[in-house]
Amino acid sequence: MESNGRMAPEVQSILAAARERGGGGDRVAVDARSLPAAFEAAEADGRVPVIAEVKPTSPTADGERTDDPVELAEAMVAGGAAALSVLTEPDHFGGSAETLQRVREAVDVPVLRKDFILHEEQLDVVEADVILLIVRFLEEDGTDSLEDLLSAARERGFQVLVEAHTAAEVERAVEAGADIVGVNNRDLAKLEVDLATFPDAATAAPEAVTLIAESGIGSPDDVVRMREAGADALLVGSAIMDHGGDSDVTANTRRLTAATDTDTQT
Predict the structure, then answer these.
(1) Is 205 among the domain residues?
(2) What is its EC number (predicted)?
(3) Which of 36, 47, 126, 149 is a plausible cystine mate for 42, CB 3.0–4.6 Å?
């Protein structure tokens, strides 16, 4: 595992801020919308299962999107998104728990809370259908264990997406009990994207695990490549949000959810 010192400064800053954030108080109890069922429904409808991400900005984005997050979320669902991801990290991504709550009330698809959770009390911030746990972050000193956070999240009704960056981390996630695993194509040392990351790491996952390819997916060709490598679904942010631009979010989403093998043929 890479230590904190080998993470990019931007990632170290995110992790430091996450250590300082407390919980939300009262214990959360969630009646979650099923993420695997949403993926199955998309497949049955002829759509590629895509989790479209609502994030105003990020350390790797060129600009900021200032549209109403609810309108963006509704546009993504109109474009065929099977689920949504909403940033609640405030310091680096412009997110908030209030935004997630508003989005979840406005749509009928599962909503992932995208944040950097290190301790159990940080689960008790807002109701979401799915929460994110990152293997690498939970290998750091002073965090709760992946196993403990998986258990605590499920006790509250959350589904859990466990994010990995390598085959070894996929194995670690599965060993801890994860049944939904994301492989992030963006490394944490240089923040560079390599779409070979997912195919390499995905081989470590048993067939029963739901696999999600994350980051760097910007074209129908990318979609096909990830799907052929075993991705059950894709998590896409910047290519749909178009930070610094004002393109049609519905069209951006549909372009990816409608991608098929024929898109790569000439």
Answers:
(1) yes
(2) 4.1.1.48
(3) 47
